[in-house]
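Subject: sequence -> structure tokens, single chain

Hey, anyone have a minute? Need the predicted structure for the following. Not urgent.
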Amino acid sequence: MYGAVTFTYKTIGLKALPAHYLKPNELRVLADVLGEGHMVLQTCNRVELYLHGSPEQRISKALSLLREIHSRDVTKEATVMLGAEAVQHLFEVSSGVDSLAVGEYDVLRQVRQSLADSESLGVADYGVRLLGERALRVGRKVRVETMISRGKVGVYSLAVDYAIKRLGDLRGLKVAVVGAGNMGSKVASILRNQRVSDLTVFSRTLERAKDLASKLGASWSTIDKIDRGYDLVFAAVANPSDGPSLVLPEAKLIVDLSVPPMFSGENVVTMDDLREVSREAAIQREGEVVKAKEIIANEVNDFALQYLNYRSKNYVAKIMWRVEEVRRRELERAVKELAKLGEVTPEMRQVLEDMSNSIARKSMQPVFEKISALLREGQENYINFLVDTLVNGDVSHSQTEKVKEE
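Reply:
Had a minute. Here:
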């Protein structure tokens, strides 16, 4: 019952990824057209759409909509996943297994934020909530039961380590951090831990730059004021509106973590260039990745059971609402008939209440067992037919024939 459409650094590369980012107004268009049952996860190395309910139909609709939004055919670049594969992928993402920097923590925050954004847009149905919340639990579990996130993890750590390998001790350098968001903050903090004393934070707005810099005892300014006096520059600006436009030829090194990059020149290292560094780090964690994937495989199987159980309870609740309505109506009728023969005491009424409850539940038990079996077989249409028949009793001839065919 789940599907995913993904564009990631692994499948299309970081340079092509920015063309797939969805702006807030485009996310609202997606919400209006697709309705309930989806979640969009956008990070510096992925754009992913998770769908719940009739995934094949919804994926086709989503791809058509993405073609309209981006004014080009994106289907050739999309990786489509169905069922357990889609669930497994999100679990691997939340666990840091699929990250550019294996084991990074930040993706947990991003998955949590994506789920919250879906809630605020009104498109997170019970299936999306179930999947998102389970992905967060799996991500935490993997980090507790393995050492995949021990030590230096995260793209920001890779970036600083890369600079140290290239330039050596950073303490005597004049360093700039462009961007005061989540990643820029972490880079700046690591630099302070490296005892970099000459540090300036730049941001689009002076308030954000000042807020971060004040916490670290650094200088601050706006991006338009950055000059050529810096030895080392780190850039981490979320989705800059333009492509590479800034040039600082006198800088010894510019590590640009922005997607797309905002700096250009021979002294610029981008996220794409850091992939080799990330592969080296991933090799050191191979054993932990294997352990993580074993945990994830078990969690996928367990989630399938959790999902079926939830679906089963949902169908049972629909049926029992109708059964309870009939039971109460018939109970009241029986009480009225008995009252014609004499007084109906509270004790007598309680006996009738208990007996009618028992009959209702026991008579419906075979139906509930059949629903569970049909769910395991993936016979959703047959279940809907059965529930509509029991609850509404007004199933059309065309619906009956469709179920017969399937």
